Amino acid sequence: MERKIIALIFMHCSLFISPAGAQVYLDESKPVEQRIDDALRRMTLDEKIAVIHAQSKFSSPGVKRLGFPDLWTDDGPHGVRPDVLWDEWEQAGQTNDSCVAFPALTCLAATWNPDLARLYGESLGEEALYRNKSVMLGPGVNIYRTPLGGRNFEYLGEDPWLASRMVVPYVQGLQSKGVAACVKHYALNNDEEYRHQVNVIVSDRALHEIYLPAFRAAVQEGGAWAIMGAYNLYQDQHNCHNATMFNKILKHDWGFDGVVISDWGGCHNTDEAVRNGLDLEFGTWTDGLTMGRTNAYDGYYLAAAYKQDIREGRYTTKELDDKVRRVLRLFYRTTMKRNKPYGFLCSESHYDAALKIAQEGIVLLKNDVVKKDKAPLLPLNLQKMKRILVVGENAIKMMTVGGGSSSLKAQHEILPLDGIRERLPEAEVHFARGYVGDTVQSYNGVTVGRSLYETRSQSELTAEAVEKARQADVVIFIGGLNKSDYQDCEGHDRKGYDLPYAQNEVIDAILKVNHRLVYVNISGNGATLPWLAKVPAVVQAWFIGSEAGKAIASVLTGDVNPSGRLPFTWYASLDQCGAHALNTYPGSWRPDRKIIDEEYKEGLFVGYRWIDRLKVIKGKDANKPLFPFGYGLSYTTFKLGKVSADKQSMTANDKITFTVPVTNTGKRAGAETVQLYVSDLQSSVERPVKELKAFRKVFLQPGETQQVTLTIDKNSLSFYDDRDGQWTIEPGDFEARIGTSSMNIINCYKFTFIQ
Ligand code: BGC
Questions:
Q1: Higher pLDDT, 451 or 590
Q2: Hey, is 384 helix, strand or coil?
Q3: Of 75, 263, 279, 493, which residue is the catalytic one?
Q4: 46 is catalytic
Q5: 263 CB under 6 A from ligand 1?
Q6: Which of 196, 222, 610, 712 is the most exposed place for a label (fewest CB within 10 A)?
Q7: How far is the CA of 263 from the centre of ligand 1 (A)?
Q8: Kind of pairing between the strands at 644-645 and 638-640
Q9: Tens of pLDDT along 698-741?
């Protein structure tokens, strides 16, 4: 009888729990969290430890016994990096790892077009899928705080709202392919110099209002599956195992359920890594990034040492299980996901995407009427300009190689000179080198296509450029920065704000014989342009990847009407930037010279926020930058009409929508970007004069008018109150300032926030 009862109870229970041994973790009909529980139960301590640290330069193991494949990561963020050897940084020499190089993220930000960010993510995801990479190490969303920042080119500009709007669709597009985004570098990695030793000191307000919003948007709106810690320190703790950053803000406050991955070599301490939220350790230096013990993965902070600590009872498996749970979740989202789309490498659609993003991101900064021609210099008048001189090393230099971890092995890269020649088969296109910059022929095993070897002296190069310019109808100078050390490159910052090499001198010399000069700047940063008043046309062309030459030629000739807008303030001089004006960069070394404290004394006042503030304090034109944030010209003209709103006041549960008619008043189709900045007119704390809170890029045919609507809600009005650590909105008057750049506000609309 007793046995019968027991048997009945057992049968009854078995209706509710899976039969012993049923592989719930493999059962796709079961909720993921249940599958994770099941997998976790089955894993041994060794297997758990194995999945939380690397096994090679870019991979970590799955759980072979249970059928979880290895996890392969790769850089990021502009294309899928070529494979390196298992345990070395040398190229593996694969034949299937050439890629499409997409434009750098600064260019993407300059499109001000979130649809293109989605396309970028999707295209990159397809390339990653083909290469069997499940985590792309990007996008980077660190704020452009100083124009010296070596990695600004990999980021989305100076403004938290713009960066947020662009990162969300990038992440969603990438992850729609079953490839995880690993948003980096969280957080405060705003410059490169001493990146391993910098301890950033920043107010809570600046942290939350300026430096964190793009990460938060990527996590909460984009649903990012992974995030990468940063090398630097905050509150004296490295940002790869920082209690405030990970435990409090990311995981607790934002509810992040993904994986925290260390930057390569960013982990320094087992205890902090265990307790402070690092989930997956990569790239720990055994002796620097390039040397050290081979296959030293057991020596990682989250490897043998951690296992030993658990065995000896210093930790329970509480933290470990949380890390493993997150890693398993990542597996289910990527490697274990069965219904993934197919991957494509170097497909036509990816080239089209790269070209489109490049064309929409190029910014026309200046286009004056040339008196003799009675017309602006651009687009080039091809009827009259038969003899064209291209000058500058950047016209013949590959820019998809170099710059650090974002370096690529592009299947092809159309150089600017080749793009111009191809577009203008009937013109005579001459070339003069002009100056010698960086002549390195190969980078991380990728050889630069064209030889940059040069033996002539600077005076010979200048003389050649001047002589050829004398006979040319127009000169296109293609210069700027490049991807070598101390320029737009990881690991260091620029040493100064001027253009490097002899560029200024050559431009001055050319201007003496030919004033029809278009300056095309290739860079991810601004620079001084001392000859600006004498040059009629300036184009900002970024690092734009595989289709660079084609995109530049299409804008110069007018096949494409430029519509990019600057994602950062282009300062006239370094002292116009808050960080430099207050002398807070790169910081001060502590007496032991181990840590350098960098205090962000300018607080919230980064980029246009600093320019606006000085304008208020010192008067109208104080600190006028060369080109403001949000600025860019077109070959057509636009007019913004009077703004209206659907209400005069709003509450926390409301939204308010502004409508502004925008007309293309010129003769060509083109795009205008309408920008809405919010100004708090009455506040108990100092706030920036205005802050970008909405924008819309609108494409218009000649004569066409569209009603552009821009909607904001309570979040657009709030500030981070560091007195109680909350986002707060104070009732009172606000103003929506609508215009076409941070310094061209055309319409203001006052409204009230009622509690
Ligand atoms: C960079 C990361 C990169 C990683 C792997 C690090 O040095 O800071 O951005 O993803 O290397 O290449």
A1: 590
A2: coil
A3: 263
A4: no
A5: yes
A6: 196
A7: 6
A8: unpaired
A9: 999 999 999 999 999 999 999 999 999 999 999 999 999 999 99
